[in-house]
Amino acid sequence: MHIKLKTLSCAVMAAIAAVPPVEAEEIEEVAVTGTRGQPRSVADSPVPVDVFNAEMLEAVSFTDTNDVLKTLVPSYNVARQPISDGATFIRPAQLRGMPTDKTLVLVNSKRRHRAALVEIGGSGTQAADVATVPSSALKSVEVLRDGAAAQYGSDAIAGVINFILKDNAEGGSFSVSSGEYTEGDGFGTTASGNVGLPLGDRGFVSISSEFSKTDYTSRSEQYCETWFCLDKDNPLYDSGASYARYTGDEAFMAASRNASLESDVVNPWGQPNTEAARLFVNVGYDLSGGAEWYAFGNYSNSEADGGFFYRYPGNGTIEDLRLEDGSIYSPLEIFPGGFTPRFEGEVTDYSAVSGIRGEWSSGLAYDISARYGYSDVDYTLRNTINPSLGPDTPTSFRPGTLSNEETQLQADFSRELDLGISSPVLAAFGFSYMDERYEIAGGDEQSYAAGPYATRDPWALCNDDGTASAAGMEAIAGGSTLDCANPDDPVYTVVGVGSNGFPGYSPEYSGSYSRDSYAAFVDLSSDLTDRLFVQAAARYEDYSDFDSELVGKLALQYDVTDTFGIRSSVGTGFRAPTPGQQGTTNVSTRLPDGFPVATGLFPAGSDVATALGAEALEPETSINYTFGLTAGFERLELTVDFYRIDVDDRTYAISTLDVSSDSDAGDAYSNYLALLDAGVVGAESIGGVFYFTNAFNTRTQGVDVVATYPLEWSNGSMTSLTASVNYNKSEFTSDPDEYLNEEDQYDFENFDPKLRGVLTAVHELGDFSLMARANWYGSYENANIVEDEKVIQDFDPIVMVDLEGKYRVTEATSIALGGRNIFDEYPEQDEIGDYCCGRIYSSGTVVDWQGSYYYMRLNHNF
Hints:
8% of the residues lie in helices and 45% in strands. It is mainly β. The chain has 10 helices and 42 strands. The radius of gyration is 29 Å and the shape is globular. The chain has a 22-stranded antiparallel beta barrel. A 5-stranded mixed sheet has the order 3-9-10-7-8. A 4-stranded mixed sheet has the order 28-29-33-32, with helices on one face. The chain has a single domain, classed as TonB-dependent receptor, beta-barrel domain (Maltoporin, Chain A).
C-alpha cells in the first residue's frame, strides 16, 4: 500500500546524505527504509516498501500496534495465544510467513532492542516488542518487505519495520476510545495524546503517551472430556466413569465454579486482562554549522494475566499424599473444587537514543549515535500450589524475572561520488558495536523447591519389601490406613516440583548470558541511466560467540516506460541466535492427550540437552529473491512483487521427547536416566523435554499485490480504494523427521492460511467519512494424530468486515462509531479432537476468533 506524502523524512535516514531543498509538492510516496542513502519514492524503490501516515494509522481501531500492522499489511500476521506462558504478554508476529525474530524493527531508523521474552515453542523467537511503540507517537510507518541483512544486520531476513516518530514543535492531539465485544466481555478503553513543544527557536520536543486497559474474554465451553467432565449436560458426561465420585459430589461441583479467578468456566480461553501505560519522547535541535542533535526514548509498563489449564483431582497434581503421621492430605483441602492457575506478567521496557548528524565541508554526511535498550518480564503465579510441599505450600509465587539489555554505538556516513557515469554514485558506509546481555533471575525459593513429596515415601513409612517400617507401624497404631503392600497407596505417590503451571527459576537454571559484536557495511547506489537504478550492499559482522559473517545484496529498478517498471533484488542474510535463545530455561505444564505433564525446555548447550543429543546453536543463513512490477494506469497504481526466502539451519524447537521413570518405557526411560545423570532436580516429575536446535532448511515463497484507485464523484465526494493481497507458502527443503513428528511437520506447512487479503474503501463527503474494510483469510488445515492415524480438518475461507463512520464536529474535533467483524464471523470449531479443556477454536491461529467488537472514538487536535 502506498500513499502520497507531503514531507520528506530526511531527519531519520540511516545514513544521512546531502539533500538539496525540494519543494513540498515535488515529493511523492517518500520512504527512508530500504536504502542507506537518500530517501526514494515508493514507486521508484528497487524493493517493495509500504508507507502509512498518521491518518491511516489513526483510522485503525486497534490499540496494540501489532494489530494495527496486521490490519494494514496482509503479509503481517499476529495471533492471540492464551495459555501460552509468556506469549500471553508479548505476542509473536509474522512477516511474509517468517517468525518475528526474522524481521528487524527500527525506530527513527535505529535498531529497536529485543524484548526479554523467548518464545518457548516453534522458532523460539526473541524480538522487539512492537506493542511498546504506541500508535499515538507515530508520524508514519514504513514496512520493507524484502531481506535487508546486508544493510541493517542480523534479523532482517524477512524485512524491516521502521517506526517514524512525530516531530512537531507545536500543537498536539488527544484521543479516547472505548468498546466491547458483543459477547458482553473484553471491554477496553484507550486514552492517548501528543503534544509538541518548541526547544528554543531551533528545536522541538514531541511527547506522546498512551494508557489502555482491556478486560478478559472467554470463548469457551465448560470443561468436559472423557477423563474428567464438569458439564452434566454434555454427552461426554458419564456418571459411571472413574471421576464420578467428584462430579457426583454437589459440594465439589459447587466449589469448582470458583476454580478459576475469571470467567464462569474453569478453563477460559480468550484474551487476557491487560493494562498498559506508555510514553515516547522525540527531541531534535539544530546546531551551528548545519548539524542536528537528536534524541528519543521511551518508557513502557504493562501488565497482563491469563489462565492456565484446570487442575482436577487425580491428574497428577491434585493427589492424595501420606503425611509424616500417616494421615492423608489432598490439595482439595486448599482448593475444594480444583484450581486453574493464573499467570501474570509485568513487562517493563525503556530505551534512550541520542546522536548528532550533519555534513562536513568535504561533503561527507555523518550520523553518529548511541542507544541503550532494556526489557524485563516479571512473573507472578497465583491460585496454584507447589504440590511437592504438600500442606505447607503457598498459593502465590514469584517464579522469576527475565531481562534483556542492549547497548550500541553506531556511526554512519554517506557522500555522493562523481565516477564519470551519468549520475553520481551515493556511497553510504558505517560501523557498529553492540553489547547484549540476557539474564534469568531466580524466583522465590518455594516456587522451585523440591519438597518432600517429590520422592516416594518421603517419611520412610515403608520398607523395601512392602512391609511397614517402625515409623509406619507407629502411624498404623495411631489409626492410619497405611498399606505398604499396595503400590497404589498414597505413600508412594510422587508429585511435581515447583509452582504448578510454571515452576520458578532455581539458582541452577538462573544466570546471565552476554556477547558483543562488531559490524561494518557499505552501500552503493546510483541511477546508471535515466531509467535504471542499481544498488549494491555488503555487510561484515563478527560475534564473540560465533564466527564472522559476510552478506551482500544487489537490487535494481528499471522504468520500462514512465508508468511501468520492473524491480528485483537478491541478497544473502543471516540471523545469529540471541543470548536468550542460547540460555533460556523453562519448565511449564502441557496437556498431551489431556493429562498435565511438566515439560522442560533446556538450553541446547546445557548438560541436560547435550545428554539428549543436542548441539550448540549456530546462525541461520538465508538467500532472498524478489521480482516485482510497478505500474500506473491513470488513477490506478499497482505493484506486484514475487519473493522467495530460503533459510538454512533454521532454529526450531524439537518435538517433545517423552520422559518416564518407568523402566519399561523404552526411550522415555532413557531420557529420564539422562536427566538424572545431568542432575535435574525433580526429574521424576518431568514428563517431557525439548530444546532448540538448527533443525532443518525451509523455503518460503509468495507474492504481494497492492493496488490503489481513487474515485471522484459528481457531488464532490471522493472514494479511495485500496486492495492488498498476499499469497505465502512455506515448505521443508531438508528432511525434518529427526526433529519434528508427523503432526508438527504437517502443521508447519499447512496451519496458516496461504492467502490473505484486505480491501479498504474510504468515502469522504464534507464533514462525514465512511470506512469499510474486508479482511479475507484463505483456507488452511490442521492435523491431529488419533490412534496413530493422521486426521485432517479443513478450514474454509472467511471474510470479516469492519465498518466505521466518522463525523467532523469542528475543524479540530471528530467522533467515530464503528465495529470490527460486524457480521460476527468465527472460524470453524475443532472437529478432530486436537484441542481440549473447554477450547472451542484454535487459539494459535492468525484468524480472529473473538467475534464482533463495537467502539466509539473521540479525536481532538489542537
